[in-house]
Amino acid sequence: MTTYITTPIYYVNAQPHLGHAYTTIVADTYSRFMRLCGERVRLQTGTDEHGDKIAEAAECEGVSPREYVDRISGMFRKTWPLLEVEPDHFIRTTDPEHISTVQAILQRVHDQGDIYFDKYTGLYCKGCERFLTEKELVDGLCPDHQQAPLEISEQNYFFRMSRYQQQLIDHIKENPEFITPERYRNEVLSFLSEPLEDLCISRPTSRLTWGIPLPFDENFVTYVWFDALINYLTGIGYPEGPDFEDFWGAAEHVIAKDILKPHAIYWPTMLLAMGVPLYQRLHVHGYWNVDETKMSKSIGNVVRPEELVEEYGVDTLRYFTLREMSFGLDASFSSDGIITRKNSDLANDLGNLFSRSLAMLTKYVDATVPPHTVDDESDVLLRKTAASMLVSYRQHMANFEFHRGLRAVWELISQANKYIVVNEPWALAKDPEKASRLGSVLYNLAETLRLLTLVLRPVMPGTSAKMAAGLGLVEDDQSISNLETGGVWGGIPVGTRLQSIESLFPRMDQKKKQPVAAVNQQKKSNKKSSAKVNGEGALAQAENIITFDQVQKLELRVAEIVSAERIKKSDRLLKLTVMAPEERIIVAGIAESYSPEEVVGQQVIIVANLQPVKLMGVVSQGMVLAAKTEVNGESRLVLTTVSTPVPPGSGVA
Ligand code: MSP
């Protein structure tokens, strides 16, 4: 089976930014996922190099369009490897093969009577490079570019798009997956409920020369969208190339909502006119804003992929964007958000699970995967979670619900962290009679890590490769390179030698988190803030007003205390092991109010995203909230809790 996945070809009037990066990461992740499913995949991206906008940008720089497009197209091409994106083909609309095929198609569609010459007056938006209908305007402006469109009246060539309207409606209705998510399908159907106008597909050379000349009239060049959309065919050798045969039947396009209409209306009607089967699926995602604001040069908040990679690392960027955006809806990027995810999901949950498990395998069984011989309930639960993770992961990844696929993966990570707490390998290691149980527990952990290496491969290829190296697995081993064979429990061979590797995700300096930094600032200045809850000092009491946004930055969770002990040489501190839902250690200043025995089993509320701090030699990963009161003239702390037990890790809003 084959898969052909494309990104839009990006205009070369601007440099790559986070929006371009996201679409391209999505397409790359999907292509890697499909490869993992055993498919033959072709991933295509490229640059859209003709049209008004490009001609203008070149003029502004005082260079020829050719010189200009070569430079910017090169920037896009160089960006993708930085994001670990590996396209099979990078197409440029200035490629000679593309130009000649576009001309051949125009000639054919013209000859069959689907292109005609007419006079037209319309409202043209340069930003969109298309005529807008009155209905599309908001207060007389293009909603995407906040510019009034120009009224242009000229003679042009038109494509009889209206002729194919009914056929397109029928196709969309018969194929619910043709445009996804559903909200965009509905949007297109609603648009199609009104009569379609024909599409103007030429520009007079008196107004624009930077375009593909119409083969049947030298006084005109081709409208940039008619030229650009055809890249999806020319890039795979349409009409006669063998790759066209192999891949077109499996074509899937990824775009954002801004170019829905050209992809869901112009493109399918063009294909119908050309007698080429329609693409399989169109996947439409929302827009990335930055700090809740539209990304724009004038605001100065355009985020560049290379800077993000430099600052956070490529896998963190890939993971964050895929996990944070619900595919189809808008999302907001902030350094705060990406650092939080890096520290909590990647460093804490995944990184800790990996390093703890590897450390225990090294310490207790000489860095060699032991056999699994003794089964118990916790093993069954872990295997079940792994099995349901695989089902849900496959389904969501195939449906472009990456955030959901990753959520399922993190459920397994959290279950594995609990598995360690429940089984206490360090205790088993002290009792020689429990050696086979210890081996079984460590086997299950190694196997869980192998499965994680497998499913994280499309999302974080570099991290997955490091994990594979740590587990002593070879890159092209079926157990980590194929979901079919690798998705079966028990794939890690007994006797595999593990290797030591560097930490997967070093935690990031939280000082970069602006709003939290502000809260920290407040904490420092507030001497009254309690050092009684944990040694580092509690969150400042509300002497100063903080905004709702600042409150939202606090990650409060319900945590269950699973064990507690006194910290030597400290009267005040208890070392708590809590599940929230993953295991973490919190050092709390409650020893004068509670004995260790009293707190075990209690559900408390913690601040989960506090910067870790070392207290009396123990790293504390959070803060337990407690009320301060006085009993018989003595100050006392009373732990906060919930009125009914809830699953550990539940958020507190
Ligand atoms: N050249 C046309 C596409 C022709 S495809 C046959 C074009 N180019 S573009 O450079 O403007 O790219 C638009 C695409 O870039 C969006 O559809 C989306 O994939 C990506 N993004 C640009 N800004 C974005 C955000 N702020 N957020 C998410 N993606 C966005 O249109």
UniProtKB/TrEMBL annotation:
PROSITE patterns: TRBD (PS50886). Its EC number is 6.1.1.10. Keywords: Aminoacyl-tRNA synthetase, ATP-binding, Cytoplasm, Ligase, Metal-binding, Nucleotide-binding, Protein biosynthesis, RNA-binding, tRNA-binding, Zinc. It is found in: Cytoplasm. The keyword Transcription regulation does not apply. GO terms for cellular component: cytoplasm. Zn(2+) binds at C125, C128, C142, H145. It is an enzyme of class 6 (ligase). A motif ('HIGH' region) lies at residues 10-20. A motif ('KMSKS' region) lies at residues 294-298. Residues 550-653 form the TRNA-binding domain. Pfam families: Anticodon_3, tRNA-synt_1g, tRNA_bind. It catalyses: tRNA(Met) + L-methionine + ATP = L-methionyl-tRNA(Met) + AMP + diphosphate. Its cofactor is Zn(2+). Gene3D superfamilies: 2.170.220.10, HUPs, Isoleucyl-tRNA Synthetase, Domain 1, Nucleic acid-binding proteins. Binds 1 zinc ion per subunit. Residues 512-533 are annotated as: Disordered. GO terms for biological process: methionyl-tRNA aminoacylation. GO terms for molecular function: ATP binding; metal ion binding; methionine-tRNA ligase activity; tRNA binding. It comes from the Bacteria. Is required not only for elongation of protein synthesis but also for the initiation of all mRNA translation through initiator tRNA(fMet) aminoacylation. Belongs to the class-I aminoacyl-tRNA synthetase family. MetG type 2A subfamily. Homodimer. This is Methionine--tRNA ligase.
